[in-house]
Amino acid sequence: MSIGYRLREFKSGIRPWLNELKFTLKKIRKSPLSMVGTAIIIFFAVIAIFAPILAPPVDSRDPYSIFLDGYGPTPRPPGSEILDSYIRGTGWTTHYFGTEEGQIDIYYGCIWGARTAFSIGVLVVVISLAIGLITGSISGFYGGIIDELLMRFTDIILAFPGLVFAMALVIALPPQWPLDLGVMGIGIAIVVAIGVVGFLLKLPGIWRFLLGLAGVAAFAGLFVWGLGSPPVWVLRLNLNNLDKVLIALALVGWPGYTRVIRGEVLRVRQEDYVEAAKAVGCSDFRIILRHILPNTIYPVIIMASLDIGAIVLTAAALSFLGIGAPVGYADWGQMISFARNWVWAGKENPWQFWYTFTIPGLFIFLFVLGWNLLGDAFRDILDPTLRRR
Amino acid sequence: MGLFEFVIRRVILMIPTLVGVILLIFAVTQMFTPQQRATLYITNEKQMKNIDGIIRQYHLDESILVQFGGWFSQLLQGNLGFSKSGGGPVLEVMVRKLPATFELVIFSIPITILLGVYLGVQSAVNRDKPVDHVTRTVSIIGWSLPSFWLGIMLIAIFFSGLGWFPPERTGTDVFNYITLSGKWQHYTGLLTIDGLLNGQLWISLDVLKHMILPTITLVTIQIALIVRVMRSSMLESLGKGYVTAARAKGLSNSEVINRHARRNALIPTMTVAGLLTAGVITGVTITETVFNIDGVGRWAAQAAMAVDIPAVLGFALFTGIVYVFANLIVDLLYAYVDPRIRLG
Q1: What does pTM read for this prediction?
Q2: For burial by CB atoms within 10 Å, which of A210, A278, A316, B41 has the most?
Q3: What integer pLDDT is reported at residue A389 of this predicted model?
């Protein structure tokens, strides 16, 4: 029972996944709309990755805050010169897309806003999917009272429109969140280490049992000690509004995934190979991890990643309402809220300030459109009743 | 099981969710400091100075159970706290601002559903033809548009550029007539209907004109949901045996589609009407802010920005309750239309 055997097992385990992926990619290539979607997303990924080259930060310690060129209230059109001599010294000469009120550079905000959008979207999806995977598989596999409780809980969270509940959470989360990472980190590290050792060595039953007991005891001991003693290493998480938005969206988002995963687990649980695994005497953990999840997770992960568009849309709406990103942060939604006073610019030339709202809006719209086009195609491709015909 | 029994069962099933919604809002209140929480118990401006007294009176620094009792009894009495940004008790402000929101909703939801069903049917009947492609593309575009940006672009085009449809809820002369002339009678709070009841048609027309852009915004963003569900359920129903049978009988194409296929395809579409409520509440919050309409949505958004805790929590509670009841109504209609649900 060597480590090499484990690796081989792992490799053969992921082979069907790779085949599925290849098949899906082939389907994607055939549909023109999804190709457009892919192209848009690649375009934004390139912008996000090369942001430091496309728009070199003026203050390299804080690249996400958009540089200000003076303080004048009136926006200036695309192509205007940069006046501030310090900014000129860093190599900037023109406002390519003009400025918002308060002389915030639109080009810089749009480029770095792509990074903000990706990081919010990806983080929210990862966090809520992780919660959804754990709760959904427990709920579907065990059923009974746990299932009932979890499902009623998801009902309650889903009863609030996402934006409204996120609004309430953003104002409810404290600006400083004390987390004792010392105790928590050591505890989690011990449990993980014991888990890895047990997994790799494949100890006989009694030893594994003792090891598990030791792990629990160590964790409990640390916990009690951590409660009584002064905190070891408290991380005072300073939550700016954007972090709060992130946490709020993840808290609002997980029940959706829990439901989908639960449904998939219920479907797979009846399969013969799960019965076989039970008959052989596999542990519940192993059955969920090795037999059920690999057969359910694939479409769920893809659907979840395509939610990035919708999440970015909600985050942008919160920023637009003024409870999202901090003022001056590179965020598309906030830039549009700056433009609100300039939609009408007098009788002679009503569209004088068109660039203040049109350009950042196009960035959000295209970003979300890319994800939605891809999502629409995937929905057809992943539909089991239509698949492989 | 008859329809009556189904109604009773469904109403009883609603109670745990309703209790859960209330408990969740209470859980959120526990994230605030006692000083912030005290604003939830205040009924008038004078009490704002007596925060310590409020904390003692409602035991806000004691255990959660004690607090819940106090909070819940206040809730039952309709006291949701005092809203700084609304300038009054939360419930009172909400009741005052609700008609403007309601007016937007009752115009946009029927348009969304009727147009969405029509487009979904056309899309399915002409599958993979130009009509289908155009409908699907347009609905994906509408779904991807940020509502606030769409609203701003509509203002830029139709107000700044063409001068057709202004933002706000009413024009200045209507506003003056309502607030200053003394001849205006409040009946429903819905200005379009009150205009007719007062015998002032020009007011109704003016309000309608102001509602066109917000309605377009709300419809554009919500319609994709209906079109998508209607299209797929229509496709499914077109492949069923009874449709083939209807065709074999020699019925005309429109009769087959309208009387046989569409009727059955409408049933799944009804289930998403509940989701539509959530979408509309979100949409209204943003649309009212963009178009500067003095409804509950704009108030909630302003309250969140001003950290007006009672207003935001009150609004959240309100939306949760509305959503639970909307789902109840949808389920009851569903059972009424489809006997398989209540008999199965």
Answers
A1: 0.83
A2: A316
A3: 42
